[in-house]
Every structure is written in structure tokens, then in C-alpha cells.
Amino acid sequence: DLPEAKSRRTKMETLADWLRPFPSQTDTNALNSRFVEGTRNWIFDDIEMWRANKGSSRGRALVAGPGFGKTTIITRIIATRSEHVLASHLCRYGHADERAPRRIIASLAYQIAGKVPAFADELERVRQAADPSQDATTIGGNVLSSVEYITSFNFSPPVVSSRSFLTLTQV
Predict the structure, then answer these.
(1) DSSP letter string over 108-136?
(2) Fewer CB within 10 Å, N or C, the chain?
(3) Closest among 87, 89, 152 to 115, alpha carbons compared
(4) Mean of pLDDT over the chain
(5) What is the structure's pLDDT at 130?
(6) Distance (Å, whole) CA 99 – CA 77
(7) Tens of pLDDT, residues 47-95
(8) Beta strand residue intervals within the chain, DSSP E
């Protein structure tokens, strides 16, 4: 469906202009290269059991002290279980703009829209209803309500790694 694919690309370009997502995070490859095979398997097993259990809690925190490898663990999940990753965001030390909540939400919303066409349609509806002089971070409440819309889809809640990474995973 060439016309449909072109229409989707155009919609995503329009949403990118409006949402201003962070650039694709290429640091994940470098961080994943730090992972030592065979280590921390218990964490991956625990996260997978939680992810697959639809009756489990709505969120999961990975909390540990500095140097434990929280970010490396999350990037490993992205590298090895990408079919379960819906959206992700990496906060790097010294990059204050990457810690702006509305920008993070807008960036995650853009990633979700790229994988869930119905969500892209919902974001486009919100964008069209918005004041053209405002970007998505200015009218964050509308984008937030669109992000709440994602709960009608069959996705498990986020795994959060302390100030390092946020990812939503598919069931």
C-alpha cells in the first residue's frame, strides 16, 4: 500500500515537527557493549516474568546504587528483546534538556505513535485541535491525555531505571 505508507510517513513527519522528539538514541549500542554475557540473568528473568504477567503491578522500578549497571541492563533489554520495547528514553548526566518531563513525554508519545497507528491518529487529532502557535510541550496536558489513551491497548506498564531509562514494553 504505497499511498497508505506515504500518508503514514507524512503524519509522522508532522507529528515530529509538533512533538519535537529527542533524536534517536544511538548511545544504547555503546552502553549495550558494556554488558558482560551471563551476568545479571536473574534480573532479566524477573523482569520477563513481571512483563508477561498481566495481573502484575502497573510499574516496575530498577533501583540500585551508582555503578550497578541499571542503564546497561535496560539497554540490554532493548537490544535483546526489542519486540517488547514500545518506547524508551535515556537521560544522560549533564544533559538537563533530557530531564524535561514534557519533552520526555512528547518524545515517548512520538515513539509510541510510530508503532501504534491508532495512537498516531489520536495524537494527530489532538494536534489539529491545538493552537497552531503551540508545540506539544506547551500544551502538554493534551499530549498527556493522549498518552493515557494508550492504556486501551494491550501494553504492560513501564520499567523505570533510576534517572537512566524509561521503557514501555508490549505484552
Answers:
(1) HHHHHHHH-HHHHHHHHHHHHHS-TT--T
(2) N
(3) 87
(4) 74
(5) 77
(6) 22
(7) 888 888 777 776 777 777 777 878 788 888 888 887 878 888 877 777 7
(8) 60-62, 85-90, 155-161, 165-170
